[in-house]
Amino acid sequence: MAKKIDITDKLSFNENPVLVIGTEELEVNADAETMIRLMGVFSNNSDMEAIGKAVDLLFDPEEIKAVCGMKKGGKKLSAKSLAEIVNAAIGLVMGENGQGEQ
């Protein structure tokens, strides 16, 4: 008979991590389907196209609106900062530990 390994206790269901930016808390979609779609997004698109599509996968519309409305000192969030948010969200989805983890 083939070897069997039970990994049930290592799996998590219905748990979305939260990315904190200042006073904003952004829930990140961390389901398996989102991860599979993200892999396709980054393999089939340029960096900027992939970031735009990743935002739509990782965040619900309310969170996207919050990100787009972020300002500091009257200045809007930069494209570089948006890429940083997407990278941090992907790290959360992948289970990587980040700075400031609570």
How would you characterize this protein structure?
The protein has 102 residues and is mostly helical. Helix content is 48%, strand content 12%. It has a domain at 28-94. The protein has a two-stranded antiparallel sheet. Strands 3-4 form a two-stranded antiparallel sheet. Strand 1 (18-21) and strand 2 (24-27) form a beta hairpin. Helix 1 (32-44) runs antiparallel to helix 2 and helix 2 (47-58) crosses helix 4 (79-94). The mean pLDDT is 87.
User: What overall form do the CA principal axes indicate?
Assistant: elongated
Hey, roughly how much beta strand do the residues contain?
A: 5-15%
Portion of residues within helices: 40-55%
Span between termini: 44 Å
For the largest sheet, list the strands in their spatial order.
1-2
- By helix and strand content, what is the structural category? mainly alpha
Helix-strand string: EEHHHEEH
Biggest beta-sheet profile: 2 strands, antiparallel
Overall pLDDT metric: 87
The total count of strands amounts to: 4
Describe this protein with a few key phrases.
4 helices, mainly alpha, two-stranded antiparallel sheet
In short:
By secondary structure, the protein is mainly α. Helix content is 48%, strand content 12%. It has helices at residues 32-44, 47-58, 61-68, 79-94, and strands at 18-21, 24-27, 71-72, 75-76.
